[in-house]
Amino acid sequence: MAADPLSRVFSALADPTRRDIVARLTVADATVNELAAPYDVTVQAVSKHLKVLEDAGLVSRSREAQRRPVHLEANVFDLMTRWIERYRQQAEERYRRLDDVLRSMPDDAAPRPTRQEGTPS
Amino acid sequence: MAADPLSRVFSALADPTRRDIVARLTVADATVNELAAPYDVTVQAVSKHLKVLEDAGLVSRSREAQRRPVHLEANVFDLMTRWIERYRQQAEERYRRLDDVLRSMPDDAAPRPTRQEGTPS
DNA sequence: CTCATACTCAACCTTTCGGTTGAAGAGGAC
DNA sequence: GTCCTCTTCAACCGAAAGGTTGAGTATGAG
User: Fold this and answer.
1) A119 touches B at CB < 8 Å
2) Do the Cβ atoms of B11 and A7 come within 8 Å?
3) Residue A68 is assigned to a structural domain of this protein
4) Residue B108: inside a domain, yes or no?
5) Looking at CB atoms within 10 Å, which of A18, A71, B62, B110 has the fewest?
6) For residue B12, which nucleotide's C1' is closest to its Cα?
7) What pTM value is reported for the model?
8) Helix ranges, chain B (H)
């Protein structure tokens, strides 16, 4: 487990069961047994899933008698959101620029750009 | 490769090299060779990464002589953004509710809620 | 103390992942 | 045609993922 934080978050959410667990935790905290109930895998498997979510910082676990209530840490979503938004905006910006270029081009100019069309220094 | 779309997107982005490729593609389209240059892995490995990104719908490839320009499909980000935002908002909503409950509680009331504290019908 | 409950650890198995090398396909260049 | 370039396909390899069973730990209930 030496991956960077962003990789951990993304790969934690790459599993449908784990995403479902996250979804259910937005409603309320829950114990491992409660979380495991709906799935047809063993409790141990779910316990492993929770460890993955915990290592990614998406979830925290406290102690309460024998139970280990699992709690969603929604703030980690920010990391992803920031990453996604950054590139989405850049991509949109790029389309806008490309659009301008195309618009300001004489109709017969060869439209064969594939490399770099950024502001040329 | 039978995973659902969301899983494919998340696991495609769970790899740092692939995220870097996506980042570079926001600047401009690029060929496989160009994309492979900065990394110290073989071109074949990068070709595989591109296949993963393509299967996730994050990238498309056209044909242009022997070259296969790779193009970022930014709209797929929306799928993720929607998923994340949904749960983040629900989570925040939940904290707000919990806050209200705590605030409206007499100081000596036992603060031991772990299960369900939603509006009781 | 004994027993039951909630959970985790350890060992194992099978499949997937990320990488390699080597060969093959697809198109210009000559 | 022959060659050279860009890219993918195929077979293989080691490591990690996701699952299992079985034993061990922690805590409350009797």
Assistant:
1) no
2) no
3) yes
4) no
5) B110
6) C17
7) 0.82
8) 5-12, 16-25, 32-36, 43-55, 77-103
